[in-house]
From TrEMBL:
SUPFAM superfamilies tied to this protein: Bacterial adhesins
Record protein name field: FctA domain-containing protein
Family annotation (InterPro entries): Adhesion_dom_sf, Collagen-bd_dom, Ig-like_fold, SpaA_PFL_dom_1, Strep_pil_isopept_link, Strep_pil_link_sf
Pfam families linked: Collagen_bind, FctA, SpaA
Domain called Collagen binding: residue spans: 474-611
The organism's taxonomic lineage, starting at the top: Bacteria, Bacillati, Bacillota, Bacilli, Lactobacillales
Domain SpaA-like prealbumin fold: from-to ranges: 635-735
Organism: Enterococcus avium (Streptococcus avium)
Streptococcal pilin isopeptide linkage domain span: 744-851
Gene3D superfamilies: 2.60.40.3050, 2.60.40.740, Immunoglobulins
Length: 861
């Protein structure tokens, strides 16, 4: 359906930005008498004070569908209070109106609105809403208009350069690139966007303005007041709002291309301020109004946003340079050395704190604190006026040196932080130069300068100096193996290329176990080789000697993060290093990995627990022989360690090894000595619910150590993680480890035959107190003692001497000491007894005697 075929419509037919007149047309179709048209010059439900244009009441004309004007008695402009309520006007002008139609029919309403701002700013969004009410039916039509340039002339605006020495921006405008005929052209340059927002703190340098015309063959520099007039904006005395160029004389009518170049000062102190600093964005726009060959007014334009250095965010900045002992101090600067020291007496940092880059006035009594960060000791402090480089915000040349007690004073607080107080107003840019001794332990040196102007918010500028480039601390390369070794990734790490002294150096490398695992030897020790390194003269580092031998306490170890599904290789390099090193190790790709999958791992260098740098290296997997078909990497394992009563064992930990199984049945150790207590994995003393981020595939778990007092399980437990079984729970029961021992002794009686159960004997010790009698052959056997844990247990065996001794019997009163040793061997407990002062195989022997005494003769028939 075409636009005209619609029952109802509304649109802006045309507008003139210079006059601010907008022309509108509405089509309204009524099937019943008494039709109503309501119109708003703002959002219907919004605030009338947001209206940007208002009705020109006398401009309303009503036509029928054939274009004939409808008599005024057939429609009325409503003045009823109900139609306006309290939103009828803004600034005394109509921003809402209502028309009533006596008879049904098709009507076209044409009217004009006037913008409150004249000329109308470009990119202005004018809202306009109509409501057509036909009996019980209604239709709302939104027909706003956003003004824009025509784009016919062809205009570009650029900012080709900035000068930080003078705080200026150079601009260029090229207009009428399409060489149209322009009459009475006025060029309006403003320090805002085309829509009039983002006012920027700029000011034209009048002497810099050069206007040229090009007729297609040659450039001609135009003469001010003959070919053009430079005009100030109304109310602007110093070109701080912008300027106008009006072409006159021979160029009052022209089709030449016009180019003008000019410079502006930029003023950071007058830009919008935020907590994060002052806005570095500067907006500039140009609007050209002219009469075209068609005799109509036309408008064209362009806009540009440009940014100065982010270091202008505050009225100061800080930077520095690290030099090793013996270095030339002048190398720390692009200007003359400001310090008395010419050669660094020790490893040092040389700082520059640049203030008043905005070129304002810093009043006397302003204070500046120069706080050195960790690992630095103050050596010298001096202050100079400086010139700033044109292309970079840094000191380019030293000016006048400030004198202590004339230009400034400074004192040290209890922490050794110098506080500088200005004794004069300062309008120039100045620099505070500080030298500091640098400790070996710190890879990055920091410094904070805080300038406080009375009754103003303090300005804090921070600087950092890296002792080495990041990749000089640690860099990493990786290469996938080929042929049968295709699952191996060979890694090489080079660290400390600049040969700095690093205390307690540690390298850590973290990998995802769903992608790869480290390679271990037969004793489950991770395989790592470390070499000293040297520069071969071309910037490449090579091994310098044989691989280093680790002490047992410094051997590389692998730890895991079960929740993250990662494992970390930690390599301790001793107390101190002061040269480059090369570290080599391997990881083994998961058998389920896919071709073209990108794997990554991170290596970090630490010194005294301070991270010097972290580097991430990626490798794209190739040639996995089609084995890698699994895509899932969200599997998990939960452990449950149970006793024979199906209860969680939480008294002590069990340890497990996790293996990955490939399609050929080969096992690869992934994680060793996973500590489990009950149903929790224990890592660094913390409890973890499960081992996460496992790739789909086959796994094997083997118990490496049972909980204390339990028998170790030696079986291989295989399970599969898949899309159907993402989360696997591994439950393993251990029976309590135990051992029994029967202690024995021997009874001998001389003088007559021994009778069974004639004498009693006592076994006494830790939790044991037994009485046993002798057998007829003299053997004495105590009830078995059962042990549930390893240890050493002591007992005593003695004969029980009756209170009423048998006549003629002499009893053995010896007490024998017995030591039982219980040891765990391969998950089992084994008890052995050792009788004090006895040879192996001998047992305590109690010797009684019988002698006939008077009155004790026994007669036998």
């Amino acid at each position: 359906m075409s636009f005209d075929d619609r029952d109802n419509y509304k649109y802006c037919t045309d507008y003139d930005l210079n006059t601010g007149i907008f022309n509108w047309e509405i089509k309204a179709t009524y099937t019943t008498d008494g039709g109503i048209l309501k119109d708003w010059m703002y959002s219907r439900y919004g605030d009338p004070n947001t209206a940007k244009h208002y009705l020109l009441k006398d401009s309303i004309k009503v036509y029928d569908e054939n274009g004939n004007e409808v008599a005024s008695d057939k429609w009325t402009f409503s003045e009823a209070a109900a139609d306006y309520a309290d939103y009828k006007e803004k600034n005394g002008e109509y921003v809402h109106f209502t028309l009533n139609f006596a008879e049904k029919g098709v009507y076209k309403v044409k009217y004009s609105t006037q913008t409150f701002d004249v000329p109308t700013p470009l990119r202005s969004a004018l809202q306009n809403t109509a409501l057509i009410i036909d009996g019980t039916e209604s239709e709302e039509i939104n027909a706003g208009e956003t003004t824009d340039v025509e784009g016919a002339l062809g205009i570009t605006k650029t900012a080709p350069s900035k000068n930080y020495a003078t705080n200026t921006i150079s601009w260029q405008v090229v207009l009428n690139k399409n060489r149209l005929l322009m009459k009475d052209a006025i060029i309006k340059d403003r320090y805002t966007t085309l829509s009039g927002i983002n006012k920027s703190a700029l000011q034209l340098i009048e002497s810099s303005l050069v206007v040229k015309a090009n007729d297609g063959t040659t450039d001609k520099v135009l003469t001010k007041d003959s070919d053009y007039v430079l005009e100030k904006v109304d109310g602007d005395e110093d070109y701080s709002l912008g300027f106008n160029i009006r072409l006159i004389g021979a160029y009052a009518t022209t089709s030449d291309q016009i180019t003008f170049n000019y410079d502006t000062h930029f003023f950071m102190d007058k830009q919008p301020h935020h907590d994060t600093g002052t806005t570095q964005r500067f907006d500039n726009s140009v609007v050209v109004t002219y009469t075209g060959e068609d005799g109509k007014n036309h408008t064209d334009g362009a806009e540009l946003a440009t940014w100065v250095s982010a270091q202008y965010a505050f009225n100061g900045l800080k930077y520095g340079k690290y030099l090793t002992e013996g270095a030339d101090v002048a190398k720390a600067f692009s200007h003359n050395n400001p310090f008395l020291e010419t050669t660094a007496g020790e490893n040092s940092v040389y700082w520059t704190a640049l203030f008043n880059t905005w070129k304002t006035t810093i009043p006397k009594e302003t204070t500046i604190k120069e706080a050195l960060g960790e690992g630095q000791t103050l050596k010298e402090l001096v202050i100079y006026d400086v010139d700033v480089a044109a292309s970079k915000l840094e000191a380019a040349q030293l000016g006048t040196k400030w004198e202590v007690n004339v230009d400034y004073t400074y004192e040290l607080d209890e922490a050794g932080v110098p506080t500088i107080t200005l004794l004069k107003d300062k309008e120039s840019t100045f620099a505070i130069f500080v030298s500091a001794e640098a400790a070996d332990e710190v890879p990055t040196y920091k410094k904070v300068a805080t300038m406080t102007v009375k009754d103003s918010k303090p300005i804090k500028v921070e600087g950092t100096v890296e002792k080495s480039a990041k990749d000089a601390w640690i860099s990493k390369s990786g290469q996938q193996g080929t042929g049968e070794d295709y699952r191996s990734i060979n890694w090489s790490v080079v660290l400390n290329k600049d040969g700095h002294t690093i205390h307690d150096p540690v390298v850590k490398d973290t990998v995802k176990i769903s992608e790869k695992t480290f390679v271990y030897d037969a004793d489950k020790n991770v395989v790592v080789k470390v070499f000293k390194a040297k520069n071969n003269g071309s910037g490449t580092f090579v091994k310098d000697g044989e691989a280093l031998v680790f002490t047992e306490e410094n051997s590389p170890v692998v730890t895991s993060d079960s929740a993250a599904g990662t494992q970390t290789l930690t390599i301790h390099l001793g107390e101190t290093i002061d040269s480059a090193y090369i570290i080599e190790y391997q990881t083994l790709l998961d058998p389920g990995i896919q071709n073209n999958e990108v794997i990554a791992n991170k290596a970090s260098l630490y010194g005294k627990d301070i991270q010097f740098h972290e580097v991430t290296k990626t490798v794209t997997v190739k040639s996995t022989d089609g084995e890698g078909t699994s895509s899932g990497k969200n599997g998990s394992i939960t452990f449950r360690k149970l006793d024979e009563n199906d209860q969680l064992i939480t008294t002590s930990s069990a340890f497990f090894d996790l293996y990955r199984k490939d399609t050929e049945g080969n096992l690869t150790l992934m994680l060793s000595n996973i500590e489990v207590k009950g149903d929790k994995i224990i890592e660094n003393g913390a409890e973890v619910d499960h081992l996460s981020n496992l790739r789909y595939g086959t796994y094997v778990i083997v118990e490496s150590q049972a909980p204390e007092g339990y028998v170790k399980d030696n079986q291989e437990h295989e399970f599969i993680i898949s899309r159907e079984r993402i989360n696997h729970t591994f439950s393993l029961e251990n029976r309590k480890a135990s051992s029994k021992i029967e202690l024995t002794a021997k009874k001998e009686l001389s003088g007559r035959p021994l009778k069974a159960e004639e004498f009693s004997f006592n076994l006494k010790g830790e939790g044991v107190d037994q009485i046993q009698k002798n057998a007829a052959d003299g053997t004495i056997t105590f009830d078995a003692i059962e042990y549930g844990e390893a240890g050493t247990y002591e007992y005593s065996i003695s004969e029980v001497i009756p209170a009423e001794k048998e006549a003629g019997i002499t009893y053995d009163e010896t007490t024998y000491k017995v030591i039982v040793t219980v040891e765990e061997k391969a998950g089992e407990l084994e008890a052995t007894a050792e009788y004090e002062n006895m040879e192996v195989g001998e047992v305590p022997t109690f010797k009684n005697t019988y002698a006939v005494t008077p009155g004790s003769i026994r007669l036998e028939a």
